[in-house]
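Appendix B: a complete holo record

For completeness, this appendix reproduces one full record from the ligand-bound portion of the collection. The bound molecule is calcium ion. The inputs are the chain sequence and the ligand SMILES; the output is the full three-dimensional arrangement of the complex, encoded as structure tokens. No fields have been trimmed.
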Amino acid sequence: MRIAQIMRSVAAALFFCLASSLVAAIQLLPVVSGLSSPVFVTNAGDGSNRLFIVEQGGTIRVLQPGSTTPSLFLDIHTKVVASGEQGLLGLAFHPEYSTNGRFFVYYTRTGDGTIVIAEYQVSTDPNVANPTEKVLLTIPHPTNTNHNGGMLAFGPDNYLYIGVGDGGSANDPPNNAQNVNVLLGKILRIDVSAPGTYSSPPTNPFFGATPGADEIFAYGFRNPWRFSFDHVTGVQWVGDVGQGAREEVDMPIVNGGNYGWRVLEGSACTNNDPALCSSPQNYIFPILDYTHLNGRCSITGGYVYRGSQGALPGGTYVYGDYCSGEILAWDGTTQTLLLDTASNISSFGEDEQGELYVVDLGGSISRIVSTVPCTYAISPASVTLPSGGGGGSVAVTAATGCGWTATSNVPWITITGGTPGSGAGTATYAVAPYTGHPKYRNGTATIAGQTFSAKQSK
Ligand SMILES: [Ca+2]
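The structure of the chain with calcium ion bound, as generated:
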């Protein structure tokens, strides 16, 4: 090993130690393997706790909770052209899927590579989709096979957001991303409340007589491959894949915002249109960007962690790089390396509890978990209460990032605050007056997994 390599290794080891102590130590828990080029995982939000896995070739598989063997939910491979950046790329379940069974897919069409947004519905079997397709929107993408985008997700406004790439090649030769009359290089937003069709929300920035395509929500993107919405703040986070130098994360995505491509790559002037770089106020700069060091070359946008298992501090944005295999975190100020993997990270995904998954294009999906098991204690663990009722508080002791909830097990005790919590915190409760028989009643609440016992005299 040469001296320079040794120095780099030492520096890397030091950096990793510092970094991991700053945020969290994570590991990957294998969930499923043997998949064919998985590019996404998500959930239906229907309380079933199933995972739905998108395979690039044109299949969606469903994984039951606790199972390691998915079954076929939908097969549309005959409609899909799949290689390189093309394929079945995105999936989103309707916010009311549990009652209407509607879901949406994003793929590149066989024959001409056109981007298709289509609607499907579940069959009478909850684990099998009805194969009848209703095409909602097509976007011509004839010239190049790269930069198709591919993300679909519903926003907190219940509109369907769509991430579309710039049409491909390099440096966006037709300047699509800055052209508000084409749907390439954009985040689109459509209303799919009526089955089998869509409309553009009148609040979209170029709606109606305003020049520009009605479907556009924001523009100036190169290849917004993956994006997500923070469940707590509602803010949209986009990982926009860069050209040859910089990968970027954009947030918040605002109505009518121009995020800079092809004038800017990350926060840097591309010199594609050098005169425009002298008016930086015309563009919204990324919240973070990183250069192509350490084998990094293509960002895979992720999620703001809001799970309750304490895998990471709540509010941490988790993302990665497809080429380096690194899982990265952004705490609002600093980018930290969480874990360096050998995976080609095609996507991240979320289950119904907000726990995060890493999708390896090589064929597997893993869950992000903490390396440190969370332990909890409460104080007091028991109380004796007067007949008039009232309230009180229970202190929870837990390590930073360890999430917990509090629930009452009897109707006369109500948890009034503090839940869900993370790390050290306080749960508050209220107790109803007691005038009945016998002389005492006993009840419990479960706080941070511990039993809180209350005895009340009449
Ligand atoms: Ca218009």
